Amino acid sequence: MSDQTFDPKMLEALVCPQTNGPLTFDAQAQELVSKAAHLAFPIRDGIPVMLIDEARDVE
Length: 59
Hints:
5 strands
C-alpha cells in the first residue's frame, strides 16, 4: 500500500470517460464512481485509472 492518497480536488477536472458526466469519490473503496455509466474507476497509488476496461460495474 502506498502513502499517496487521492486529492478530492481533482474531481473538479475529471469526468467519466464514457458519459463525460460527473464523478463522485468513494474514499472507503478508493474509487471514482460514475452514476450515469454505472461504473467505478479504481484509484491506484493515488492516481485514478480512468480506463473503461479497468472499471467495474456498479448498480
